[in-house]
Structure formats: C-alpha cells, structure tokens
Amino acid sequence: VHGGCSRTLTVMLSEATPSILSALVGGFVGMIVSIVTECSLVEISLNPFYSVIFGVGFLSLGGLIIWRVMGSNDDLGVGTRRLLVAFSCCVLLSGLFCFLLEKDWVSVLSPTQKIPMYMLLGVSLCFALTFSIADILNFMFSVYSAETAKTIIGASSQIFVLLVGSVVMGAYSGVLFGILDVEDDDRTHIRFRQDEHLSWPVGLVIGIIVGLSNQYLRSKMRTYTFDVLTAWET
C-alpha cells in the first residue's frame, strides 16, 4: 500500500513540476516587469535624457512595425495586420507621450490629464519588456533542449495570453502612477514607495496566472516526431 501511495505521489509531483516552475518563473518575471515599468515611468517624467531615449526608441519601433506590416508579403491575415497596425500606432503615440510627460518641458497638463498617457505608455513598456524576456527564454530553451521539444511560447493562443497579461499589467501600472502623481513626489519618496508596494504584488499575481495558462496551453500542443528512414525503407 505504501509503495503504491509513494508511486502515485511521485507521478503527481512529476506532472505538477512543470506547472509549478511556470508559476514561479511567471511570477518572478511579472514582478520584475512591473517594477522596471514603474521605474521607467519615473525616469521618463523626471529625466530629459531618458525621455529622449524612450521617445526616439518607441517612435522608431512603431515606424519599423508599420513598415514591416505594410511591406510584408506574408499571409498574415486581415485581423493580424489590423492588430499589428493598431499596436504600432499605440507605440508611436507612446513615443510622443514621452516628450509630453517630461515635467520640465510640458507643465500645462494636470496629473489627471496625464493618466491616459501614462496608461498607454505603461502598456507599451510592459509589452516590450515581456516579449523581449519571452524571446530570450525561447532562445535559451531552444539551445539547451532537444530539437523535438516544444518551445516555451510559440502558439498563437500563448502569445494572446501574454499580450493580454502585458496590457492589463501595463494599464494598471500607468493608471497607478498617474493617480498617485509620483512625478511630483518630494525628497522622502513616499509616493514612489507606495507605488512600488501596490504594483509588484499585482505583477506577481498576473505573472503567475500567465505562467500557468502558458503551461496549460503548451501541454495541449501536439508534438510531432519523425523517424529516420533506413535505406531499405526508401
């Protein structure tokens, strides 16, 4: 009886290990992305150098995406093309907002009027960070895994989940940053600490949900294997 229970427990643990790892990695990445996004919003608001760097970067990225989508001969589909064009327009607007949100350059906007700008900028930052980390993880996984292994993020459903998580996290970070008016914080940095304390738990939870969802969708993907033909079989 004890042997059967131990074998059952071992099987359950082996089946749950990928989900546990995905939740841990997703939670850690979500927490890091939320913190980096908040710090980036602070630098864009207060530091003219970073405002220029992020602004030029987003404008270049948005223009590159539009150029690739319009000039591509691939069969992307109407829906995919519209989604990519809409995202590129959001990135272009985020680039313009980097210049408008610098408090030393534009002082006529109230904190409330800046909230939608911070929200869109937060979405663009989260999207760029999340998909960059996903590309790095896919590359590392492809290097150290077998050729027949499934990628960590490759299916359209997984990309959609990652996109939704990035949008929710970025919108929350931007709205929170604007509501707390972190850019007008004093030397005690109370607002910034409050912003951090309210942002990373949400990033942690969203990261865990995205990680578990990604592992579930990955487990449903079919794996195709091919045997090498011998001379007499050909």
Keywords, separated by commas or semicolons:
234 residues; mainly alpha; 0% strand
Q: What does this entry look like structurally?
A:
This protein is mostly helical and 234 residues long. The protein has helices at 2-46, 48-71, 78-100, 111-144, 156-180, 190-220. The relative contact order is 0.15. The model is unreliable at 224-229 (pLDDT under 50).
Give the strand content. under 5%
- As a whole number of angstroms, the C-alpha radius of gyration is 22 Å
Query: How many H/I helical runs?
Result: 6
* Assembly level: single chain
Low-confidence stretches: 224-229
3D shape? globular
Report the end-to-end length measured between terminal Cα atoms. Answer: 51 Å
- Structural class call reads mainly alpha
Write a brief caption for the model.
Helices cover about 80% and strands about 0% of the residues. It contains 6 helices and no strands.
Write the layout of secondary structure elements.
Layout: H1 2-46, H2 48-71, H3 78-100, H4 111-144, H5 156-180, H6 190-220
